[in-house]
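Input (MIP18 family-like domain-containing protein):
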Amino acid sequence: MLRWRATRSVPWRHSDRALSSRQAAQLETQVLEKLRGVSDGLGLGDIVSLGRVKVKRQQIDTSLTHFMPRSPSFVCYSLFQELRVVPEAGKVSCKIETPSPALMELAQQWQKEAELAVNKLDWVKDTDFEISKSRPRNARAGRFSSLAHVSDIIAVSSCKGGVGKSTVAVNLAFSLAKRGARVGILDADIYGPSLPTMVSPEDCTIRQSKKIKNFVEPVDYEGVKCMSFGFVNQRAAPGAGGVGAAVMRGPMVSKLVDQLILGTEWGDLDYLVVDMPPGTGDIQISLSQQMAISAAVVVTTPQRLSFVDVEKGIAMFEDLKVKTAAVVENMSYFDCSHGQRHYPFGPGHTQELVDKCNMKNVFKLPISEQFSASADSGRPFVLSGLSPEEEKTYDSLATTVSPCATGRVKYNRACTNCSRFRLPRNWWF
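Output:
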């Protein structure tokens, strides 16, 4: 918002060298055309159309007055275009916003290409391009939500059990964390929690939050915040000390899922990866209602039966207004000792996904003994360093999901529900 008081504090300077608003706009148009030639490297578009170019708002009122026209229209134009140009000095400066710390390396590439492109203009003598991080969404005034400072929520789903959904969710979360993002992971499968088996924190005890009454602190493992019913009720997960089962009806499960989501003090997170239970029932709908999911990843296997359920999962997220960012075909192939690649379950149906669902981002993971060993050992595969090729696949998945998730929702719906939501005292026991 333009504050007239700030602009009046500096006197207008009228000189023969002052640019007209049309001339200034033409120079900015030249710069923007050069920046439109910088691709994001992900196939989503250029950095201008994606809104990655940001203005230095704190400097624009005073730095532009020495060549402003008689009307403030050029200031409004600069704010609208989110770019700062000083033609008399031949200087162009702006901020390039990275949608996530996970894409910082890519943003540095944008910075280099943008400077090279703009420097090709004859009148440009100096460029100042900086990289800025996007701000997390905040809670609405007067209401508190544990998800208020969670920027984006990624749901990892499958309509069938046993396809490797939890493995993909955990490794995706730690792939994002390796890139510098602040990440949490929620195991929303109450009947069969897998997270306590796949990660092995030194202390998996759930403790009451010191900051917020009746909230709990998530378990920390390698810098990633983890929450699962297996940590809350240790009898529910063998990896957490017991073999008991969670025997309860659907409405009770939905209420417990709500407590895990809204009763955990997540803090500031760039991504919260949710390992959703298989299916398209009450729990999936409850999860989508309690939090604004930014993007979804659907996990499947090459069999025809599993492919049919993938279509159902994509349709469910489409009805819930959630973009399916990628499909992961797990157990797709294996490489034998002779160097040949075999497809024990057939070639799969990824091409049908591309044709029928317009799904461009499809990733294939092999049948690997190392995957299984890592999951059983309690250390995510992407942290083991056993297979760089498979780690690269997870890294590509993280690169694909990051820009699809960022900025799709303005705030978490949980912020609007928290005034009606009340946690029972000591619910974690």
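The domain at 150-417 is CATH 3.40.50.300 (Rossmann fold).
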